Amino acid sequence: MSSPASLVTRAVDAFYWCRLEGVVSRQLFRYAFCGGMNLALDAVWYFVIYHFLIGEGRMIDLGFVYMSAPIASLFLVFPITFFTGFWLNRNVAFRASPLGTRTQLLRYALSVAGAILLNYLCMKLFVEVVGIWPTPAKLATSLLSAAYSFLAARYFTFRGAIED
C-alpha cells in the first residue's frame, strides 16, 4: 500500500507534461501545484470557519482585544494551512531532504514569517511610497513573495532535497 505522500506526488505528477520539462523543473511544478492546493484548502477552511463556526458579523472578545469575525477566521485558519503547507512541501515538493523534521519545521516557520514581513513591506512600499494602486501592488507583491518562498524552501528550509 502506498503512503499518502506518494499518492499525492503521483497525482501532482499526472499534471506535469513532458512539454513543461524544458521550461519548469518538476520540483518547481510540484511546489506551485502544492501551493495552489494549499491556497484552495485555505479558502475552503476560511469559508467554513467564518460562516459556520464563528458566524458572520460577530465581534470576538478575547478579554484583551476585540477581533472581527473575518480576522478571527484568518487566525483560526492560519495554523491549519501552515501545517498542511509544511507537509506538502516536505513530502511532495522537497522530498528526501537530509535535514530533520524539527529543523525543517523551525526553518519553515522562519520562512513563513519572512514571507509575511515581505508582503507587509512590499505593500507599504508599493502603495504608500511609490503610489501604485493596491490591486497591481498586491499582484507584484504576491509574485515576489512566491519567488522568495520557493527560494527559501529550496535553499534554506529543505536544503539538500533531491530533485527527482
UniProtKB/TrEMBL annotation:
<feature type="domain" description="GtrA/DPMS transmembrane">
    <location>
        <begin position="30"/>
        <end position="158"/>
    </location>
</feature>
<feature type="transmembrane region" description="Helical">
    <location>
        <begin position="28"/>
        <end position="53"/>
    </location>
</feature>
<dbReference type="GO" id="GO:0016020">
    <property type="term" value="C:membrane"/>
</dbReference>
<feature type="transmembrane region" description="Helical">
    <location>
        <begin position="65"/>
        <end position="88"/>
    </location>
</feature>
<keyword id="KW-1133">Transmembrane helix</keyword>
<keyword id="KW-0472">Membrane</keyword>
<dbReference type="Pfam" id="PF04138">
    <property type="entry name" value="GtrA_DPMS_TM"/>
</dbReference>
<feature type="transmembrane region" description="Helical">
    <location>
        <begin position="108"/>
        <end position="127"/>
    </location>
</feature>
<dbReference type="GO" id="GO:0000271">
    <property type="term" value="P:polysaccharide biosynthetic process"/>
</dbReference>
<protein>
    <recommendedName>
        <fullName>GtrA/DPMS transmembrane domain-containing protein</fullName>
    </recommendedName>
</protein>
<dbReference type="InterPro" id="IPR007267">
    <property type="entry name" value="GtrA_DPMS_TM"/>
</dbReference>
<feature type="transmembrane region" description="Helical">
    <location>
        <begin position="139"/>
        <end position="157"/>
    </location>
</feature>
<keyword id="KW-0812">Transmembrane</keyword>
